[in-house]
User: Fold this.
Amino acid sequence: MLEPERSCPYPRCEGAPEPRDLRCPACRRKLLPCRVCGAANRATATYCRHCGGSLTPEDEWRLPRGSAGQTGYLPSQVRMAPLGQPANHLRRRSLRLAVDAPPVAAYDYLFVPTAAHGLHVLTVDTLESVAVLESPFGAPLLQPPAVVGGCVYVVSPRGLAVFDLARTLSGPTMAPTLIGSPIQVKDHIITPPMVFGDMVYFGTEQGLCRVDPRGSGTPQVLASGRSYLLARHGETLVFCPEEQAIEGVDPASGVSRWRRAPKRWQADGLRVRPQAGLMSDGTTLHFADQDGTIWMLYPETGDALPMVHRPEGVTGLALMPDGGCVVGSIGGLFAYDSAGTRRWAIEHEELECPPVVTRHLVLAGTTGGGLLLADRLKGSLDKQAVGSGAVRGIALSGASVLAVTGEGDVTAFDLPLEEEVATRA
Assistant:
């Protein structure tokens, strides 16, 4: 009998993947290698079946800004080469459908929300369309989905639907199944879904809501008032009520733990800029106001420090692993250190979707169908045309970069890995 680390973890497969293989050579299903011993595990495994080590998959872009903290930073297990190496395996596809929300990548699939034709599911490797998940109550999909724990959470302005991917992940074909019935919401949903334990949270025109999709299916209002920008800050759910403050609530009881706003806002009448996002690094919260100031908030004390000022209109933020941040705006792409000192700038590029930060790169989409790839430390630039119309979002899956425009053009390519570059040298 094969040792556990050399046998395929899926049933009815006799394949023998090598340590750290990303796919079984026999059944071609995705593997999650253990970072400790290299053993092959199923894509949705939590602990290694051989050594028991944690298998929290960090290389899947499951939410529009990459994590529950919404940081826009991808701590990938895949070690990509620095900028300047040629990309591999360029592939393109046109859905010929309007896209108004960012895509999400997970489990080797790309999930693209369309304005009128549901959630399209494409394979990352070939961009083949393998499924279309119906929009809840036939409404347009204006928010990206969340893909968590083998399920896809899809929201439209009118409701929520949850699809189980278990059969897909344990079998050779895409076969999502609807869990229960779609859950209708009276007030329009205006945020992506946030999964926290067994509950799904979302903001509506009238308040912050949660629902147990496997329970009664009746949404519960936790806080009243138009609710924007959900993020997870440790064990606290953070949101923005009426654009006027940042509030943290207990996700179980809905009880407010704190409510903060920069003191300057009261005098100047400023509010949060929803387009820029709200993100947590576990200690501080970052967000922008309508005046173009990027704030760093310490929620436990209420201290709010102005970090950067971009008056031309902030369209997205992403955090860097060293405490700095990247700011996308209608005037370009800018990188700052933790003290707010500018590291580099790429000007005269109008950006729309939030930037993405990886170990080596910063990626951002322009309103003219271009994808910017900048060296994270130096700002040196490559540019890739990805279609017509504004880039709605960027997703990452392993070494693959995927971009989707508002016209439904999908472009994907693979960034070279460090070992590939070393072999060529």
Summary: The mean pLDDT is 85. The helical segments are 166-169, 263-268, 418-424.
